[in-house]
Design goal:
10 strands; Rossmann fold; alpha/beta; 12 helices; single chain
Amino acid sequence: MQLKKLNIVAIGGGHGLGKVLSTLSFMQDQLTGIVATTDNGGSTGRLRKRSSSIAWGDLRNCLTQLVDDNTVGSKLFNFRFDGQDELGGHNLGNLILYGLGQIQSRPLDSIKMVRTILKVKTPVLPMSESPTDLMAFYPEGRCRVGELSVDEMPIMPKNLMLAPLVKSISQCIDAIDNAELIILGPGSFLTSVIPPLLVRDIANAIRRSNARCVFIENIVPEQSPAAALSLDEKLTWIEENIGFLPVDGVISHDKNVQSEKVKVIHHDMRDEEMPHHHDKAKLIEALSRCINEIEKDPRLKIASTR
């Protein structure tokens, strides 16, 4: 099965999802990105404290990774102010999206306008247009709120939820309903991969979907409590938190990673010049291998049994 013939939805946040979208940008409107909007750190966090809004940082990152680095638009939206004044540390792209968000009636309109400016053909969608934060619960019941706080937890949370609960948008659900391949990751497990799955209508759409779902593991260990988990422990945690296991196959750079739950494809995905990044050509090859192996394996569940 060739990737270029599939409708693909990639779900996540941060640099990981941006890398996947950049890698598959040749798919244009056959590819849709669904982006986590719970970030509360850095420039994004400061803007969210100023007034209630979704987190714009990961959306901006994904949009700019779909644009040539040498274009004026890319340089403009990636520019970051230095210094210690009010602008210091702010990303200009975040400020533009934030400003548009104050003018437009809904965040999706702001994103469409930026896509037009940057000439991005791939739909990039927020997991929700309503502001929300991550809330993580320790086994004994105490909780932490906010992405930054979650990643700093000394142990894995027992549960993760959105506060407040939010709904997705019809465009996200339609994209999942029409998808033939769903990609999760790479990226921070708790704060990039999981948040969109906590939006109930996104999870329900994935559950009823006939698409195959592939989880891409990180190349280097992440700085969060999830770093201590084995692959099957991560998959079990997902199943316990959203009520089902959406993953059919996993792509891992580490040959020692094994699973009793799903098909694992071991593939060298490391970029030789930037070893902590995925190489685009290798990632495409790994995805193609994984899909073909899933289709050939009679032991794998199909969507209707989820």
